[in-house]
Amino acid sequence: MVRAVLQLKGVERHYEQAERRLTILNGADFSLHAGEMVALVAPSGTGKSTLLHTAGLLERPDGGDVVLAGRACGRLSDDNRTAIRRNDIGFVYQFHHLLPEFSALENVMMPQLIKGLSRGEAAERAAQLLDYMQIGKRATHRPSELSGGEQQRVAIARAVANAPLVLLADEPTGNLDPVTASYVFQALEALVRQSGLAALIATHNHELASRMDRRVTLAEGRVVPL
Ligand SMILES: Nc1ncnc2c1ncn2[C@@H]1O[C@H](COP(=O)(O)OP(=O)(O)OP(=O)(O)O)[C@@H](O)[C@H]1O
């Protein structure tokens, strides 16, 4: 049986809004397996970002837990969750959030330098990843000198720079035109398949969702098949 790299077990998330309690995740269960790409497709405001942030240990669940490679992590301290996140989880957002004063190569090197790799090792891996994302020729360019699709390719390379177990993406192509979105997704897919990563990708794009292994949605705070 393929092992679950990421599990949500009865996860609850509530927000206090204008003196009322808003329940976003209400006992959400979900398993993501090694090598799998899963699309999270749900209407705006139903909790996709909340789910990704909780799964990615950015936010703590109010109930239940997040299990990463068999280890219960969701309820750990902020410091412990941050340490685990740095090693084991890659994030891609709708907007690239690249550091504007650094080149594409340096942006991809950054997480590796923070982890403690030497500049030489980090530069070598960053160059390989940029080549893999078919943007190697742009390695010395700053984000402002790149197109939206190129910026997202760099952001994806950065997200996997530390060889995480899990890639979480929140509308990674949401800011791109359909043709560019399709090419960027193709590169993302090739990278995920080649590295054996597990990926959970929130998208409103049904065509891209249809290219993934399975699709889930959120209904009344739970994750259900689509
Ligand atoms: N920090 C917060 N405090 C209060 N309410 C919040 C907070 N974060 C999110 N919410 C609310 O929780 C609900 C779910 O938000 P979330 O961003 O997870 O939805 P989403 O499905 O990702 O939406 P979109 O597709 O528009 O990005 C929304 O009603 C939002 O207003």
Automatic annotation (TrEMBL):
Residues 1-28 form a coiled coil. It is an enzyme of class 3 (hydrolase). Gene3D superfamilies: P-loop containing nucleotide triphosphate hydrolases. Keywords: ATP-binding, Coiled coil, Hydrolase, Lipoprotein, Nucleotide-binding, Translocase, Transport. Its EC number is 3.6.3.-. GO terms for molecular function: ATP binding; hydrolase activity. It comes from the Bacteria. CDD domains: ABC_MJ0796_LolCDE_FtsE. Residues 6-226 form the ABC transporter domain. SMART domains: AAA. Belongs to the ABC transporter superfamily. PANTHER family: IMPORT ATP-BINDING PROTEIN, LIPOPROTEIN-RELEASING SYSTEM ATP-BINDING PROTEIN LOLD. This is Lipoprotein-releasing system ATP-binding protein. It comes from Aquamicrobium terrae. The lineage of its organism: Bacteria, Pseudomonadati, Pseudomonadota, Alphaproteobacteria, Hyphomicrobiales.
